[in-house]
């Protein structure tokens, strides 16, 4: 619905309303709700507390500047990371390369070429890592810290 300006002069007390003005009076509230060009904008004070819920917020529209940075949020983020589990994208692991030669910080390697290790570089279970990993730096002997990137 398009917004229609209704001049005060056409709305006369005691006179019949013109049909075009009646249609505008019917359609203008819809234009306001839809945010049409020219329509008055709904102000924050007009919104009831808790009237906008999470399911009504478009994906990827809330930026870091809109998020509160406090203890509860840090615990929430930490809980989400912990729930991702071992080897998830964004996780760090101690591993050693079993193929592909030496790795330097920034090098990426397929997880099939890496094995979980301890900080000294002694191979632990022989279990290959999944995904793609980036070397963050050396820990000892042949071990390194790796960040899962894909």
Written description of the protein model:
The chain is of the alpha+beta class and 150 residues long. Among the domains are: 8-45, no CATH class; 92-148, no CATH class. 20% of the residues lie in helices and 23% in strands. It has two helices and six strands, in the order ααββββββ. The chain has helices spanning 19-34, 71-84, and strands at residues 92-97, 108-110, 114-117, 123-128, 132-140, 143-148. It has a six-stranded antiparallel sheet, with no helix packed on it. A hairpin with a 2-residue loop joins β5 (132-140) and β6. It is rod-shaped, with a radius of gyration of 30 Å. It starts with 18 loop residues before the first helix and ends with a strand. The mean pLDDT is 86.
The backbone outline, from C-alpha atoms, is rod-shaped
Q: How many DSSP-defined strands?
A: 6
Number of helices: 2
**Average of pLDDT:** 86
What percentage of the residues does DSSP assign to strands (E)? 15-25%
Give the uncertain stretches in residue-range form: none
Question: Helicity level, as a percent range?
Answer: 10-25%
**Class by helix and strand content?**
alpha+beta
Strand order of the largest sheet: 2-5-6-1-3-4
Distance between the terminal alpha carbons, to the nearest Å? Answer: 46 Å
* Biggest β-sheet description: 6 strands, antiparallel
Indicate the radius of gyration in whole angstroms.
Answer: 30 Å
Give me the strand/helix succession. HHEEEEEE
């Amino acid at each position: 619905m398009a917004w229609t300006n209704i001049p005060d002069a056409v709305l006369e007390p005691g006179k019949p309303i013109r049909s075009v003005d009646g249609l505008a009076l019917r359609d203008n509230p819809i234009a306001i709700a839809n945010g049409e060009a020219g329509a008055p904008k709904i102000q924050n004070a007009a919104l009831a507390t808790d009237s906008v819920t999470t399911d009504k917020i478009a994906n990827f529209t809330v930026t870091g500047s809109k998020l509160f940075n406090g203890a509860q949020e840090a615990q929430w983020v930490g809980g989400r990371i912990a729930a991702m589990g071992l080897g998830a994208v964004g996780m760090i692991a101690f591993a050693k390369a079993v193929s592909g030669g030496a790795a330097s910080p920034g090098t990426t390697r397929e997880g099939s070429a890496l094995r979980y290790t301890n900080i000294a570089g002694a191979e632990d279970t022989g279990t290959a890592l999944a995904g793609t990993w980036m070397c963050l730096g050396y820990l000892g002997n042949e071990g390194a810290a790796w960040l899962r990137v894909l």
